[in-house]
Description:
Radius of gyration: 21 Å
Number of domains: 2
CATH superfamily of the largest domain: Zn peptidases
Helix content: 25-40%
GO cellular component, one term: extracellular space
Cofactor: Zn(2+)
Mean pLDDT: 94
Low-confidence stretches: 1-19
Shape: globular
Keywords: Carboxypeptidase, Cytoplasmic vesicle, Disulfide bond, Hydrolase, Metal-binding, Metalloprotease, Protease, Secreted, Signal, Zinc, Zymogen
Bound molecules: zinc ion
Oligomer: single chain
Largest sheet: 8 strands, mixed
Number of strands: 12
Distance between the termini: 68 Å
Amino acid sequence: MLVFLLLGAVALASAHHAGEHFEGEKVLRVHVEDENHINLIHQLADTTQIDFWKPDSVTQITPHSVADFRVKAEDSVAVVNFLKQNNLKFEELISNLKNALEAQFDSRVRGTGHSYEKYNNWETIEAWTQQVATENPDLISRSVIGTTFEGRNMYLLKVGKAGANKPAVFMDCGFHAREWISPAFCQWFVREAVRTYGREIHMTELLEKLDFYILPVVNIDGYVYTWTKNRMWRKTRSTNAGSSCYGTDPNRNFDAGWCQTGASHSPCSDTYCGSAAESEKETKALANFIRNNLSSIKAYLTIHSYSQMLLYPYSYDYKLPANNVELNTIAKTAVKELASLHGTKYTYGPGATTIYPAAGGSDDWAYDQGIKYSFTFELRDNGRYGFVLPESQIRATCEETLLAIKYIASYVLEHLY
Ligand SMILES: [Zn+2]
């Protein structure tokens, strides 16, 4: 009886684990007009522990934008008073994060197994990679491109009909641990590929003429940590010499203007660039795979959230890529395709001017390797739920995103190089 009660308590605790510690925490949005506003938010960040949701850090706030951030329950009154006293325009996006975290699991799909309309934990995704490959041997093969800091296998799915010398599109999800909609999209893409192959002409053609390399979760250790310890974790889980803080921002860890701008040299920062470019096993494995397959990879797509943006190089500099006009036209058409389904509006453009300068990103790095078509997606939403997007939005988000991805892949197919 005691054992039974204990097991019940453990099950209950783990089911709600991701919601712990966030009672009374708020996510606020401040409207930033000028340098004076930026200075005030810096003051706030210097004196209060603040978790920036958008932009990724306080150093990246620009005039005429918004800053979304999470504040601890015990600081929320003081922060709100500070904003009011300084006449900063703000609103409360999330009034109690614990409630929002519980509300994200609103899928009507029942059961505990894998579901494309639920957020799946790593164990479930890992088993899914095996199953989907086994069930579709003529379309999918699974390989391991490396292991994470904590020793987990990084699975890569190659999706496409067998053929010699096929060009390829590489797509990854789950760079940032808390962006749960991202891995959900990679899984959705694979499902739609196998479900519509032979039934829908565009997908059929794509899979006959292209291979898609899908890396469902890049930062697996971080993703596991968001399920078990801290839902708001972003970075990897590697240890840092001389610091008690964990992790590196994998999307600041690539050799593309590494750590020059929009990244931090402090291991405790959420945008820590790491001890060197490719210091993380996860980014190293990804970069090695792309380097080893450069002759076939024609497009690089990386899926993040949130803010509904489609970005292309560069982010580490204000310079524009050689084919910037072409990339702009592709992005414009892709977001139009995306909006055609549910009316979801995306902005688009080069990273540095469209959001903010940030060095060490995988899209810039892939582009500089010679991959002409390199894009970063920032999926739903625009801040209403931010990183805690409800499961009930997975389907619509993935459906619309798929339209944009298929458009880009078709374009690449017609413009092989
Ligand atoms: Zn991200």
